[in-house]
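User: Can you recover a sequence for this backbone? Please restate the input before giving your answer.

Assistant: Of course. Working from this structure:
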């Protein structure tokens, strides 16, 4: 390695490492501030919290790395320009691209490493982080029940509290509890004007004492003819005690994980999952088509009993099908037709909603697959934006470079997140959603590199005002002649 390469890399590595660690710390503090209510006061051992922060730090690397590359590139090239070191290199016949070459090699290796990290480390970190955060949150459900929000952490129940009062926040107002423990679904609702919540001394049960309330429960008769009556039971109470078993939250190991989501899979696992989801969607579509054909297929009118029709001969059928039946049959036919049509419409709506949900899940998997590549490529894109920009503004340190870098990164982050949302709602394809922000910034970076390499002045206002001055002089001459 030549002396120039060592000098440039040494000048780049120190600010890069510092800015990268600072950004990780900044984003981590944002995470802690967001989930402080879910983590504090749970009685959880400190090493679980430390482990959660460690895994969360790993998940923040894709956001911190591009900004660190951008900021350090602007700072290093700006410092070289401010100290006239860049001018001395150019006067010695060393071009800007030659100065940037070791940095480009380093950033390319960094981009490949970022992809490998996103493919093999981040899925595991997402799984561990989500598992620990969920289990820590559920460690003490009484603290997780918030005002005006349904809490579903206890299996089989959804609890909503209108207001929490008292020194320990254990006095309740406007309590609403949905009981989903029955096989028939949501058939029981409990409403109370007030209540009191406490955990037993052995922390095995959560007790909620309700005052001045009533319960409503639907009854499902065994006989189908009685179901149209919709029987139910309503009871009033002055005081009622409900116990929720918390043994599931006292299992001990908070690292026990659940089902993997799309952001917890690597590239190969995502491909397998997308292939399985596409096959499942195709099966659902085929089944839906078969069902609709069976239900809506046209039956030959000759199969209709002749005693229900006016005409005996097949050739005498009226184009208005309803007129082919006895008048006493027409009202029943219309009622049955309307009932069947409503049933088919409901079936179609449910099937359409199910297919849309499956398409959304497939789209999220494909977006995650594209994201692993696009975020890694963004490291190179932002380097081509930051390095020539630093050479142009010729300002080092933490002043102007930080302002410029943060502004550019905010533009990149907002555009990329907005395009990703377009992909989530399936307005754009996953490829367009995840790569458009890079394709917008890449030409700008190459243009800045060209302008910086040719020593073009692009931040001088006189350069942009000169055409307008010429136009003003031209109109001024015409005015004087007239």
């Amino acid at each position: 390695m030549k002396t120039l390469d060592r000098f440039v890399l040494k000048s780049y590595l120190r600010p890069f490492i510092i800015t990268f660690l600072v950004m990780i710390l900044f984003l981590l503090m944002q995470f802690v501030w967001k989930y402080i209510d879910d983590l504090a006061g749970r009685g959880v051992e400190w090493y679980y919290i430390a482990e959660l922060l460690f895994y969360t730090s790993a998940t923040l690397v894709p956001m911190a790395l591009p900004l660190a590359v951008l900021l350090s590139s602007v700072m290093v090239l700006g410092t070289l320009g401010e100290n006239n070191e860049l001018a001395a290199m150019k006067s010695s016949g060393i071009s800007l691209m030659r100065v940037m070459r070791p940095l480009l090699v380093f950033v390319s290796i960094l981009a490949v490493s970022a992809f490998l990290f996103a493919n093999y480390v981040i899925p595991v970190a997402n799984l561990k982080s989500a598992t620990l955060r969920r289990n820590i949150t559920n460690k003490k459900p009484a603290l997780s029940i918030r005002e005006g929000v349904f809490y579903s952490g206890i299996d089989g129940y959804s609890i909503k509290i209108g207001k929490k009062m008292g020194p320990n926040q254990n006095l309740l107002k406007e309590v609403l509890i949905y009981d989903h423990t029955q096989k028939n679904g949501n058939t029981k609702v409990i409403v109370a004007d007030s209540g009191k919540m406490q955990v037993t001394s052995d922390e095995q049960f959560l007790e909620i004492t309700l005052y001045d309330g009533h319960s409503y429960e639907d009854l499902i008769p065994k006989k189908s003819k009685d179901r149209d009556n919709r029987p139910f039971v309503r009871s009033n109470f002055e005081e009622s005690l409900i116990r929720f078993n918390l043994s599931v939250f006292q299992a001990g190991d908070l690292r026990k994980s659940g089902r993997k989501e799309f952001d917890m899979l690597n590239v190969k696992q995502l491909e397998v999952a997308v292939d399985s989801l596409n096959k499942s969607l195709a099966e659902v579509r085929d089944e839906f088509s078969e069902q609709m054909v069976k239900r809506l297929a046209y039956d030959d009118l000759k199969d209709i009993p002749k005693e229900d029709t006016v005409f005996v001969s097949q050739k005498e059928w009226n184009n208005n099908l309803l007129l082919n039946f006895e008048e006493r049959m027409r009202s029943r036919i219309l009622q049955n037709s309307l009932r069947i049509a409503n049933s088919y419409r409901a079936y179609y709506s449910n099937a359409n909603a199910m297919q849309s949900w499956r398409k959304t899940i497939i789209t999220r998997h494909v977006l995650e697959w594209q994201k692993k590549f696009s975020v890694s490529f963004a490291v190179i894109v932002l380097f081509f934006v930051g390095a020539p920009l630093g050479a142009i503004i010729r300002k080092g340190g933490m002043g102007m470079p930080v302002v410029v870098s943060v502004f550019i990164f905010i533009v990149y982050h907002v555009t990329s997140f907005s395009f990703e949302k377009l992909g989530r709602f399936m307005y754009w394809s996953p490829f367009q959603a995840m790569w458009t922000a890079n394709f917008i910034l890449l030409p700008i970076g190459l243009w800045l590199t060209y302008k910086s390499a040719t020593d073009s002045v692009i931040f001088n206002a006189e350069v942009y005002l000169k055409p307008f001055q010429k136009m003003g002089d031209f109109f001024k001459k015409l005015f004087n002649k007239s």
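That completes the design. Strands lie at 157-165, 171-179, 188-199, 205-218, 232-245.
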